[in-house]
Every structure is written in C-alpha cells, then in structure tokens.
C-alpha cells in the first residue's frame, strides 16, 4: 500500500487515517535538484524543489497539499501536469480562524473525504478517526528550540547531535497541535467535520495566518535556553518573525538558512558547533592532562593557511608558524606543527595538550580537543587585547564578525560562508585578474583618485567588472579601492547585524591589507586594532584552550 505524504500541519491527517491512509510527513532532503530544476522556476524555494524531486524519482505516489504559499501552488500545477502521482489533492484553506473559514474548511474536508474514499475504495471509520487524535509530546526541562521554516530531517539530526541540550523541532509542520481533544461522539459526519475544521484552524498559527500572534508562546517558554531559527532559500515568510525574535526573545538565537539539500546542511556545521559552545562553554573543556614540560599547542587549519601557536606554562607565546595548507588539512597540520616545534627547539613529546580549530580541525587526528574557529578567535583576540568587544575575521573562504564579552566568550556571531564574496579568496581572484600578487594588492588603493564602485560582490561578476575597468584604462589604485570598498561594505553590514561595538579587532591574513583596513575603518566609523599576531589569533585561542586542559 502506498503511503500518503503531506507537507502542512493543517493537513487533516486524522481524517485520511480514518479513510485507510498511512500518512507521512514529507521531509527528506535530496542530494540535489537534478530533476526538479528541469521543471521548476530557478527561484522556487528549496523545499518545493525537494518535493518535486521526490515525486519525479518515483518516491511519492500519493500527496495531499495545502495552499500554504505560491511555491506549493506552483508545485501542485507542475505535478498535476506530470502525471506521476496516483493521487494528488490540494486543500484550499483560508488563512484565518473565523466562523466563515471554519465553515469553508469543513466543506473542503468533506470534499477530500469523498475524493480519497473513491480513490482508495474505503469508507470513513469513526473509531480509527478518534484513535488518531494523539497529543503532541513536547520536551520537558531545559531545551533548545528550532523555529521558523520547516527543517529537513538530515539537518535536524545534525542539530540534535551538535547541541548540548535536547532539541525540540517547533518549525512549521512540526508544531502541529491537533490531538489534545478527542472528537465528539456523533454519527453526523457534517457536524464532525465542522468540529474538526475548528480543531485544525485553532492550532498555534503558522506565519501564513492573518493573526499569528499566538506564536509568541513558542519563545516565551521558561525552559527554553536557545533558539535556532531556520529559513529556506527563496522563502521570505519567516523574516518578519525573526526580526521580532531578535528584539523580544531573552535567549541566544542562531539564524541559519538551507536550500533543503544535504550538501547545504554540511556547510552549517561550524555555525551550529559555535552556537553550542556559546550556550555550554563546558564543551570547550577537555579532560585533565598532567603537566609535563608545560608546553601546549593550537593548530588553526584554514582553507588557505595552517597556523600553529605554542605556549609555555605561563601562557606566553613561544613561537607562531604560518604555512600554506596545501592539498590536505591533516598533512598541512602535521607539517606546520613540525615547523613550529623545530622553531621552538621542542619535540612532539614536549607538548602536553593540543587543540585544533578551523575548517580542517576534524581531519586532524592528533589533537586532544577540537573547537570551532569562532570560539577560538574570540579567546585569542581577548588574550591580545582584553578590551576588544568585536572581532572581524576575513578568512580564505569565509568572513565572520564575532561579538565577545569581557571574558572573551562569544556573545553573538554572523558568518558569510555560502560563497567567496568578501573573503580572502575573492581578493585573491581579483589580484589574479589584475596580474598582481596579494601582497601587491594589499599595498594599493590608498592613493586612489577616482571613487570607483564595484557593483557586484559575486566573484565571477566582479571579475568581469574589473576586466571592463582595466579596458577603460582606469588606474590600478582606483580599481583596488573599489574592491576594498565592496569588501568593507559587506563586512560592515555583518558587523551591524551582530551588534558590533568598540573596540574592534581585525584578525586573519587580510588584516595586512592596508587599503581594506582603512576603508573598513571608514565604514565602521572607528579604528581597528591590528595586532602583529592577528593572523595567529585562531591558533592562539586553540592553544589557550589547550593550556586550560593541563593540570
């Protein structure tokens, strides 16, 4: 027997069950959208594409939809034309809970029952209908809640594994609350459907309802310790709620976006781990290590460089090494550590504890602990200047702004890690286009004459703009200033989102770019602290955490 898939919490699951259906929430995340992209508009949301992909692959044969949004309506039209489904039905529910809406919904329920019964060859079973009403069991005690747009199964499992507390999925369809009340004992099907319509529409409202104020109970729970707010690419229904949450929620919030593929979820792991570390600092603590020679090390394995810092028992820097990462994180880390040990006149046996950080941290098997670069950069910046409250790090493949407290702990952070825009890789590509080295690029742009604006931050389109400017015989300093201004504007926007405050410190290799530093200072309206150890900040933070492990 085929399973009957649904996508919305207003779907009459209990009614379908009473008609012989085995109802399943459609929530799997595909590897990609190879088939869906051949049928749908490119700007349709990721979940809509995931739905199309599942049907086109033959994984779904029965589907009941609710007119949630334009995406679902578009998907329904495409699926109707495809002929791939044995049963497809769209329920047209009004986005309100008034008497007229309930009356109209009751009619919709009766029409669905008639259509599904005819398709399945079954009749309504009142006993099964009543048993289908099961109260939703919520997490009790301290927990973290996922809010916003529906979160795919693969991503939610990743969240559960990463978080230090139980996680409640309160996103979209998962906060369905029908089931708390048993249906009345009546043989009048029309009256039963009127009651049922009230139960469906009387749930905690979704963001598509005209009156969605009841959703505040989702984040006014005294046991709530953190919120992960999820959005889906090309869906803007939840932007308004997130703006409300930022103002009124009294717990830490992490906003993440996915395109509903498994690959996009993997990119979010660093953010999730950093959020977990900020909620439960104990995650950064390692098992007690006995002190030997008193030396500890931190390795920051980035996409461009691998940095190593060695500290002595007084937490003073013995040496710091920066080497290209190369083809493999593990090999690059091993090589950088050997160079650091050689520089310090030490052997591996002299290192009492080793902590790894950066994108390649999990590939390094030699460490005692792995901590995200978000947390390590905050710790390292605090070591270099305890008065720093905002850390700006423009790395090889991402850029991030971290707000820290007086103890160097992460208060909030934002990242740009979905493309090369505004990162070291972006500057590297632009330098290559202009046939100069990164070092040369970092020295140019200070003496510009014409205030050029690079309109695109996409590496591909920006490269085309630069080529065009070169063809127009624009001065190199003017073009470089335009590039610096584009990166600075994007970084300043991240700082505003995170609530950046003075003092600001800039870390990472891009901090050596004098033109960019000056332009960013102008955008922020304040001076940036630039330490001579700026590029070692992540490795330094990792080494400090390693020092905490030694007894």
Describe this structure in words.
With 551 residues, this protein is an alpha/beta fold. 38% of the residues lie in helices and 17% in strands. The protein is built from 18 helices and 18 strands. The N and C termini lie far apart (62 Å).
Helical stretch count?
A: 18
Major β-sheet profile: 5 strands, mixed
Q: Helical proportion? A: 25-40%
State the end-to-end CA separation: 62 Å
Low-pLDDT stretches? none
Structural shape: elongated
Q: Strand order, biggest sheet?
A: 11-10-9-12-13
Give the oligomeric state.
single chain
Radius of gyration: 28 Å
What is the β-strand count?
A: 18
| Average pLDDT rating | 89
Structural category: alpha/beta
Strand content: 15-25%
Compose a concise summary of this entry:
With 551 residues, the protein is α/β, with parallel strands linked by helices.
Question: What's the helix and strand layout?
Answer:
Elements: E1 4-6, H1 13-18, E2 23-25, H2 46-56, E3 62-66, H3 70-82, E4 87-91, H4 99-120, H5 126-131, E5 143-148, H6 153-162, E6 167-169, H7 189-201, E7 224-232, H8 239-248, E8 253-258, H9 262-266, H10 269-279, E9 295-301, E10 305-311, E11 317-324, H11 329-344, E12 351-357, E13 369-370, H12 373-384, E14 390-394, E15 399-404, E16 410-416, H13 424-433, H14 438-443, H15 459-471, H16 476-498, E17 504-507, H17 514-524, E18 528-529, H18 537-549
Parallel strand pairs: 1-2, 1-3, 3-4, 5-6, 5-7, 7-8, 9-12, 12-13, 14-17, 17-18
Antiparallel strand pairs: 9-10, 10-11, 14-15, 15-16
Helix pairs in contact: 2-3, 4-7, 12-18, 13-15, 16-17
């Amino acid at each position: 027997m085929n399973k009957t898939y649904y996508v919305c919490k207003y779907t009459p699951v209990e009614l379908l069950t009473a008609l012989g259906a085995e109802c399943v929430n459609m929530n799997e995340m595909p590897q990609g959208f190879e088939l869906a992209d051949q049928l749908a508009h490119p700007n349709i949301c990721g979940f809509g594409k995931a739905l199309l992909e599942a049907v086109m692959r033959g994984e779904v044969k029965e589907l009941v939809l609710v007119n949630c949004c334009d995406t679902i309506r578009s998907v329904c039209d495409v699926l109707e034309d495809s002929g791939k489904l044995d049963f497809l039905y769209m329920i047209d529910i009004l986005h309100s809970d008034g008497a007229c809406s309930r009356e109209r919904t009751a009619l919709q329920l009766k029409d669905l029952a008639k259509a599904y019964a005819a398709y399945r060859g079954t009749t309504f079973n009142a006993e099964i209908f009543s048993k289908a009403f099961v109260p939703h069991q919520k997490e009790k005690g301290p927990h973290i809640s996922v809010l916003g747009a529906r979160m795919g199964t693969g991503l939610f499992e990743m969240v559960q594994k990463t978080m230090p507390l139980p996680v409640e999925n309160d996103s979209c369809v998962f906060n369905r609350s029908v089931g708390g009340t048993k249906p009345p004992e009546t043989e009048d099907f029309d009256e039963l459907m009127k009651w049922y319509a009230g139960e469906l529409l009387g749930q905690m409202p979704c963001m598509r309802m005209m009156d969605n104020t009841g959703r505040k109970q989702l984040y006014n729970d005294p046991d709530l310790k953190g919120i992960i707010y999820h959005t889906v690419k090309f869906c803007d229904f939840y932007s308004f709620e997130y703006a409300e949450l930022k103002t009124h929620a009294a717990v830490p919030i992490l906003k993440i976006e996915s395109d509903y593929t498994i690959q996009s979820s993997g990119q979010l792991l660093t953010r999730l781990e950093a959020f977990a570390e900020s909620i439960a600092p104990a995650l950064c603590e390692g098992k007690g290590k006995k002190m030997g020679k008193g030396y500890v090390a931190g390795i920051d394995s980035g996409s461009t460089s691998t940095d190593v810092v060695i500290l002595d028992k007084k937490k003073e820097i013995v040496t710091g090494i920066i080497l290209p990462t190369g083809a493999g994180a593990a090999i690059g880390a091993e090589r950088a550590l050997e160079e650091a040990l050689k520089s310090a006149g030490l052997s591996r046996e002299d290192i009492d504890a080793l902590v790894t950080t950066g994108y390649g941290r999990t590939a390094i098997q030699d460490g005692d602990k792995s901590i995200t670069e978000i947390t390590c950069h905050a710790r390292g910046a605090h070591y270099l200047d305890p008065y720093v409250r905002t850390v700006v790090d423009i790395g090889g493949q991402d850029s991030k702004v971290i707000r820290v407290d007086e103890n160097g702990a992460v208060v909030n952070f934002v990242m740009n890690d979905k493309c090369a825009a505004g990162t070291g890789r972006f500057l590297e590509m632009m330098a290559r286009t202009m046939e100069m080295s990164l070092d040369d690029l970092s020295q140019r742009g200070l003496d510009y004459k014409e205030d050029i604006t690079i309109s695109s931050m996409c590496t591909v389109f920006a490269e085309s703009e630069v080529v065009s400017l070169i063809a127009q015989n624009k001065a190199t300093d003017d073009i470089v200033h335009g590039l610096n201004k584009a990166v600075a504007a994007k970084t300043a926007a991240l700082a505003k989102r995170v609530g950046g405050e003075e003092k600001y410190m800039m870390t990472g290799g891009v901090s050596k770019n004098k033109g960019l530093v000056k332009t960013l200072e102008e955008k922020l309206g304040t001076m940036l602290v630039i330490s001579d150890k700026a590029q070692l900040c992540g490795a330094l933070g990792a080494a400090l955490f390693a020092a905490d492990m030694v007894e």
